[in-house]
Amino acid sequence: MSSTTLARPVATVAAPTDKEVQAALATGLRNRWYPVLPSRFVETGGKPVGLTRLGEKLVLWRDARGAVHVQTDRCPHRGVPLSRGQNEGDRLRCNYHGVEVSPDGTVLAVPGQPGCPLEGKKAVRTWPAVECADAIFVWFGDALHQEAPPFVPPEQLAGGAFSSFCCYADWNASWRYIYDNLMDPMHGTFLHANSHTMYQGDTSATFVTRATEKGFFFEKSTQRDVNFDWSEFLDDGALYVRLEIPYPKTGGPGGNFGIVSVITPIDETHSACFFWRFRKVEGWVRDVWRFLYRTKLEPRHWQVLEQDREMMDGVGLGLERHEMLYQHDAGLIRLRRYLAREARAQLVELRASGRT
Hints:
- By secondary structure, the chain is an alpha+beta fold.
- It has two domains: 40-127, 3-layer Sandwich (Rieske Iron-sulfur Protein); 155-341, Alpha-Beta Complex (Naphthalene 1,2-dioxygenase Alpha Subunit, Chain A, domain 1).
- Helices cover 21% and strands 29% of the residues.
- The protein contains five helices and 18 strands.
- It starts with 17 loop residues before the first helix and ends with a helix.
- This is Aromatic ring-hydroxylating dioxygenase subunit alpha.
């Protein structure tokens, strides 16, 4: 008998179709950190908060020490939402039958039948969460990446030389269309032409893309620091779009007014939008900027955002079928291709592991 070992045939992994890739992207690209709610909405020892993000039902709560916890919003007994239960300071108690769940998802008590097999089981998924820049970020990993890497925010959200405000709103639009809007600087010249800062500059332009280590710039080739002249996309643990709006001296200290945006899918057609407005200011200048922003500038910025929201509102999926794009749209085209490539790679990895 031959001692030669016959090699086993390698199973071929079917390549994901475009339809499967788009379906995977519909509720968000996985293996990224996403902000889910401003920190102020979850009170220490207060009522649990139920919400949906990336199609997942979640419950957020703070224990008696103020630490935030994010778990699947489902009691392991009968499946009702834990967010309708009670925060006991170190655990959640379901109102339906009194089942108690710890911050790590372990069932601590089943009052109706003490000692039953459910007690002691880790039966509720707990999601990695951190707080940064006045928001709660959650790691949404796929079946192969549920352990979260360290969260490292962009420097504009890390404090230090920058001061920021977290501005939050829910929009009736797909997260991808809102990112498309952010990667389209030219719309500022038209949609926001009557704003307090974006009335200057050319109404036509040529754009170029410039690759960076973790993303790319999409920028006007002949105009800088006049209008909304560029956007930067970054994929650095989370998906960010950064841009700057030139400000006159009457707009206060700190140079250009910057925005860091992260759009978190709620479901296929609704999004939780986080827009951090920032400037590079320290010391007493920081205090001046923050006072000026709250008293004078913030209402104007919400007016500009409302113009964007109105453009996006109610736009259903499948918008791409009706588009006739041109050179100004190269930024959003590049972003779409990038997201599709990342989603495709995730699907291939999941299939190869047999986890789909």
